[in-house]
Every structure is written in structure tokens, then in C-alpha cells.
Design goal:
Chain lengths: 80, 261
């Protein structure tokens, strides 16, 4: 299954917004720290990504992610 | 407070509504004893219940029949909780049958294999830790996926009074149950803001097959001077699973006639 960057970005923003931050704050350059997105949120984001795109993100993968853009790029790369 | 907080639990054919979400329940080791009593109690609250069993197919079928006779829904689901593949299979079976996610999990399956520490075999140690602690962890890990997404869920682990205070001759069982209590508290804190509660009950001397061979002197140590019943434990689990217990998490409810006090 191929997905576009725009599709992944939309899904990631939607999911992150459900954790609290306003969708307008969730830009590619925003850091998870700035958005107050913590490790539990990232676990749930990984679960969404696995269910929607079949991409498995493990704990060590998530630790490398600093910004929203990092997450989007990793998901697109692995889903491709 | 989210709107769903104010919604009431209502019994219905497809499963109970927990905080505005409809789900089903899974009770491990539910063919007899405490597990069977818990399954029946949850069914009375409107939960469609998965009655897990390892080898007691006839007994599990009897529990299902009893629930259905009372107008509830239940499904017997075979599976050894020690097998790492069992959680996914059980959850998939129940989700397909009841068409709802599992939003209540009661980890009740347990074994004991008693001996003193100096003479305990590796096999006895491993078997009890695997069933009473590691299997419960894997069930919880699987259960939290739909619960976190649903922003609601109930996990109740059936621990034991020996997880709280010593009982010579049960080092493996005590370690497993103390570990289960620690796992309960840790996980409760991790997922509390997702609306998922994780609690434990700590039964004392309860009239079950597992305790039938225990020393009669133990009864004299129970302040209430009697053994408890599976139904008395089930009533506590039922409360912890209920919507009314939404602010109770990370707790251990002793059901032991005062034994641990």
C-alpha cells in the first residue's frame, strides 16, 4: 500500500490533536516537547500508524523522533 | 469533565456501556472458583463476557449456560494464558463474536505449586511466575490497545493476600502476586489519563479448589474466622469494573476477612 506524505501528515496531526494540542500548533517543525506530547502519546501514535499503514514503530524508533516532521518522514519512508 | 463521564452503565445485549463506550469483558481462568463468580457478576451488570479456560471445557460451558439462563451473553474461549499467542487470539475471538472491543479485563487465571524456598524446583518457580505474573502482563499489554483508543477501560488483577504479607511455603506464588500488585500500580499510573483504570483485588482464604488442601490452622489466623466465598471476591471485582469506580485506580482491595490488616 502506498500512501502520500499528505495522507500521513493529516493522520498524524489528527491523532496528535486528540492528545491535547491545538491542531494549528502541530506543524512539521514543532517538537513533541513543545506540544507536550509524551511517551504514552507516542505509543498510541505508533498503534494508529500500525493499524492504518502496517508500519511497526518500536520504542527505540520513537525515541529518535523529536519533531512532528520526523515522525511523518519515518512513517512515509517505511510505508513506501 | 468529559460528557462521557456522566453517562450511565446500562445493560444491553451487545455488552455493557462503560463511560459511553460499548465493550465486552474477558475473564481468564473463569471455568470455576473466583473466575466463574466474576464472569457471572459482570454478566449481571450487562457485560457480554468471554469465559476463558485452559482445560475445563465442561465447567466453562456450565458458566456460559448459567449466564445465559440469567439473560446474559457469554462465550467460552479456550486458551492457556501462558502461551504468548493466546492474548491476540482471545481478543480477536471476542471482538468478532460480540462486535465490540474488550473494555474490561479480569486477570484471574492462576496456579500454585508450593514449597519452601530452599527446596523449590526451578520448574515450580517458573510455572507460577509464568502463569500468575507474566501471562497477566501480556494480557494487559494487549488489552490496553483498544482501551487507550477508546479512552476507557477496566483492568482488574486477581492478586492475593500473600502478595501483601508472607506465607511460608509459597515463595513463588507470593513473588508472583506481589509482582502483579506492582505491575497493577505502575500500569495504572501510566494510563490513568486515558480513562483506563487498573486495580487489584487481594483475596485471602477463599473457598475454591485451589485452597481446598490448605492447612486448617490457617482459618484460625483469619480475623473473621471463616473463609470467604468466590462471590464475595466477585462483588469487589464487579465494583472495580463498574462506572462508579472510575476514580479508583492503582489500588489493591483486600478481600480477606481482615487477614492482611
Amino acid at each position: 500500500m502506498s500512501v502520500t506524505t499528505e495522507q500521513v501528515e493529516s493522520r498524524v496531526v489528527e491523532t496528535l490533536a486528540s492528545f491535547g494540542p491545538d491542531a494549528s500548533q502541530i506543524t512539521r517543525s514543532a517538537t513533541f516537547e513543545e506540544l507536550d506530547i509524551d511517551s504514552l502519546d507516542l505509543v498510541e501514535l505508533a498503534q494508529v500508524v500500525e493499524e492504518d499503514y502496517g508500519v511497526v514503530l518500536k520504542g527505540e524508533d520513537m525515541k529518535e523522533l523529536k519533531t512532528v516532521g520526523d515522525a511523518i518522514d519515518m512513517i512515509v519512508e517505511r510505508a513506501g | 469533565m468529559p460528557e462521557t463521564e456522566t453517562e450511565t452503565v446500562s445493560a444491553r445485549a451487545g455488552g455493557a456501556r462503560a463511560r459511553g463506550r460499548t465493550g465486552c469483558a474477558l475473564v481468564t481462568g473463569a471455568s470455576r472458583g473466583i473466575g466463574a463468580a466474576v464472569a457471572r457478576a459482570l454478566a449481571r451488570d450487562g457485560w457480554a463476557v468471554g469465559v476463558n479456560y485452559r482445560s475445563g471445557a465442561d465447567a466453562a460451558a456450565g458458566v456460559v449456560s448459567a449466564i445465559e439462563d440469567e439473560g446474559g451473553r457469554a462465550l467460552a474461549v479456550a486458551g492457556d494464558v501462558v502461551d504468548p499467542a493466546t492474548p491476540d487470539r482471545l481478543f480477536a475471538t471476542l471482538e468478532a463474536e460480540f462486535e465490540h472491543p474488550v473494555l474490561a479485563l479480569v486477570n484471574n487465571a492462576g496456579v500454585s505449586d508450593d514449597d519452601l524456598t530452599p527446596s523449590m524446583s526451578d520448574a515450580a518457580w517458573d510455572a507460577v511466575i509464568d502463569t500468575d505474573l507474566s501471562a497477566a502482563f501480556r494480557m494487559m499489554r494487549r488489552a490496553l490497545r483498544p482501551m487507550m483508543r477508546a479512552r476507557c477501560g477496566r483492568i482488574v488483577n486477581v492478586a492475593s493476600v500473600v502478595g501483601l504479607r508472607a506465607n511460608p511455603g509459597q515463595p513463588n506464588y507470593a513473588a508472583a502476586k506481589a509482582g502483579l500488585i506492582a505491575l497493577t500500580k505502575n500500569t495504572a499510573v501510566e494510563v490513568a489519563r486515558r480513562g483506563v483504570t487498573v486495580n487489584a483485588v487481594a483475596p485471602g482464604l477463599i473457598e475454591t479448589d485451589m485452597t481446598a488442601q490448605l492447612d486448617g490452622d490457617l482459618l484460625a489466623r483469619v480475623p473473621a474466622r471463616r473463609a470467604g466465598t468466590p462471590e464475595e471476591v466477585a462483588a469487589c471485582v464487579r465494583f472495580l469494573v463498574s462506572e462508579e469506580a472510575g476514580y479508583v485506580t492503582g489500588s489493591v482491595l483486600s478481600v480477606d476477612g481482615g487477614l492482611a490488616a
